[in-house]
UniProtKB/TrEMBL annotation:
Domain annotation Carboxymuconolactone decarboxylase-like: ranges: 50-106
Alphabetical list of Pfam families matching this protein: CMD
GO terms of molecular function: peroxiredoxin activity
Source organism (scientific name): Denitrobaculum tricleocarpae
Superkingdom of the organism of origin: Bacteria
Gene3D superfamilies: AhpD-like
Protein name, UniProt field: Carboxymuconolactone decarboxylase family protein
Length: 189
């Protein structure tokens, strides 16, 4: 395997504290962090940015909407299962989780505005229209929360890109939630 799955005994010294903290806080070390340990600065940046996103004014469910939207848009077969589990733990309704996994419109208008804003940021490389920005604000989100979405996307850039490059194997803990991006059938002319 080109990208080794490190643990606290095989990782570079600089990565060991982050791996130990992950095991302590999460009860295990997911394969993503094991891969990231080859680049200790990446692992540390990812862990710190994750923690900072947890401190934002977005609710746990809203944070998972940002994460799952990015995972879907970036076709991250590793992250969608994990965030499906984390969304359940955050008490996100099952129909919202399934809509996020399938790319469908969310049944909750406020969460759909968040999903649309997040999706637009990704699709347009941050250059969204005034109308898209206003739809986000009209749903009750603030300027601070718009910037907090950017922080969440920074977390996902690190994880989604790492998984794409490394082909990170899915952990046994989420195998039952395995995911492939659905194909959208083309319409006849």
């Amino acid at each position: 395997m080109r990208f080794p799955l490190h643990d606290e005994t095989t990782a570079p010294d600089a990565a060991r504290p982050a791996l130990e903290a992950t095991r302590k806080n999460f009860g295990m070390i997911p394969n993503l962090e094991r891969v990231m340990a080859s680049a200790p600065a990446l692992l540390q940046g990812y862990s710190q940015t994750w923690d900072l996103f947890d401190e934002t004014s977005l609710t746990p469910v809203e944070r998972q909407v940002v994460y799952l939207t990015a995972n879907y848009e970036n076709d991250c077969t590793y992250c969608v299962p994990w965030h499906s589990l984390l969304a359940r733990k955050a008490k996100m309704p099952g129909e919202v989780i399934e809509a996020l996994r399938s790319g469908a419109v969310l049944p909750d208008a406020r969460l759909e505005a968040l999903r649309g804003f997040t999706r637009s940021l990704i699709a347009n490389r941050g250059k969204i229209s005034q109308a898209e920005r206003q739809a986000f604000f009209d749903a009750g989100y603030s300027e601070t929360q718009a910037l907090e979405v950017v922080l969440g996307l920074a977390v996902k850039l690190m994880s989604n890109y790492t998984n794409s490059i490394a082909g990170t194997p899915l952990d046994d803990a989420v195998q039952k939630l395995a995911w492939r991006k659905p194909t959208i059938p083309m319409r006849a002319p």
